Nuclear mRNA splicing protein
Amino acid sequence: MAPSRGPVPTPRKLHKTLANHKGPVHVARYAKGTAKYVLSGGQDRTVRLWNPELGTEIKSYSAHGYEVLSITVAHDNSRFASSGGDRQVFLWDVMTGQTIRRIPGHMGKIFAVEFNEDATVLASGSYDSTVRLWDLRSQNRQPIQTLEEARDAVQTIHVGRTYIATGSVDGHVRTYDLRMGELRTDFIGHPVTAVVPSQDNQTYLVTTIDAHVRLMDMTTGKMLNDFKGHASSSYRIRACFGHGEATVICGDEDGKVWAWDLVDAAPLQPNPPPKVHERVVTWIEHHPIEAGEVITASADGTVKVWRS
């Protein structure tokens, strides 16, 4: 729970604009731990590595034939995986800029890729309604498991230590307990674009295109809180927790970044927030460790680094 002095303010001072992509940026991810790097992927078929402190591009990764929709970074920052319109997952070496492996198998574009904790397994979720799990230590080209319960496109995946959570356009969040071999399904009722669990895995945030972000109990599937005010009706957007999980932050289709108090779901000032991107904010992510930094990606072609 947040201390009584209230939640840490959302970083709203623009530090740098990362503007080398040609066209919409669909995803921006921080490197793991204290590493000061950001990876972004866009409609221009590239993944770009940035130094957000200086605002400079370090490297560009080109092999995709279609748009890049998802990026996941390995625990040691030596590799990352990306996916999108290609129907295959690309595994990259960060330093050399070369693809280590390309993994075919899906029948449609791949909206989400996510490593497990030690990057030995990769999960991919697709327009073909399946999630496939790949063993990266094996040269076997077949997935070790295919999760086929979704009835529509899978747009988001989170791989926990003992579970995998998926969100689908069919309006369901599905949590696969890997130890027990059990599946729990939460019916949200609207297309799910993002699922972000809390650090203790007791709750998760689910973003849906009915302009709601909901805090759900991971064990019971009960809704604990409902955050609204932002504009969201047609694009994949993502809400996440602010620093210390005392707030919820989410970009919207008007280019605004909203913040709410986790406990009472009240929008934080400024309410309404100012427009900070020219088009929809497609992704928002808080720095994994530091209190005062957030990145946003937008269809306006930029990634912006915000500080307190």
About this structure: Residues 15 and 306 are 5 Å apart (CA to CA). The chain has a mean pLDDT of 96. The first strand starts at residue 13 and ends at 18. The chain has no helices and 27 strands.
